[in-house]
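Comment thread on ticket #2218

A.B. wrote:
> Attaching the input chain for the structure job we discussed in standup.
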Amino acid sequence: MVEVDVPPTNADELRAAILERYEGLSKRLQQIARYVLDEPNAVALETLAVLAERCGVQPSAIVRFAKSFGFEGATQMQRLFRDGLLSGNASLGYGERVRQFSQSVDSKLVGDPAQVLAEFVQGNVLALQNLGDAIGKKNLAAAVKLIREAETIYVAGFRRAFPVAAYLAYSLHQVDKKTVFIDSIGGMTRQQVHAISKRDLLIAVSYHPYAEEAVQLIDAATAQRCRVLSISDSLVSPVAKPATVVLQVREAEIRAFRSLSASMCLAQALVISYAFATSTQTRNGSTLGGNTRSKK
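C.D. wrote:
> Ran it. Output below, let me know if you need it in another format.
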């Protein structure tokens, strides 16, 4: 592992450095890296002992992680995220609210179906509230631009991600975007993607544990210089690292069951944003054409 001499000057620079160097970190330091990327507010506010417990490592490992990025110690690294909180650049307390909610739910016996429904509603509300903060305007705009510019959209999602991918493919068809849904029926994954090219876009949806089929599809797409939009739960997942744009979704987990509400909401936002962007572009083109003809 190569250490750097000059530390990042803000949280965004540190996140970029972690993403760039992630594959070269040891397994233990990768655990810390994922936590730092996923829980920046906890990194800013919690003690070293608490962070170590949540990462599943010794406190000395967090100090070693910080030093590998040029910091004198963990406190200097934490200060970057604390500054981000003070300047209002991060969503406050999501991870802690989720932990408190999970502890409250897990401490109760399962009652009637109405109780279970209320728990799922509350958990999903937390995830949906975080979604807008977690996915920045720049990334969302870049994702819509990829969809708009692609000649054909290929959509894939396996196991738990299958419903999200199916909904995306259906919705894109509904707004007249040429779309291929890779459902892998009959083991035909490679055949369904054989025509993919650099003019197209692969949308891959995958969450931990990441489907090997999704990883292989992304490898096949990037080999053809096709751009990739990944929807995943981690910026350093195997489906996120090779992607052109990554949209990170952190779903609610209620009684060990993970939801898909936030992912479905994101899918809706992507398709509707694309539809309106295309409609606006068409109207503007018609207006310009009309003005040109009238001048003649």
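A.B. wrote:
> Thanks. Noting for the ticket: The radius of gyration is 22 Å.
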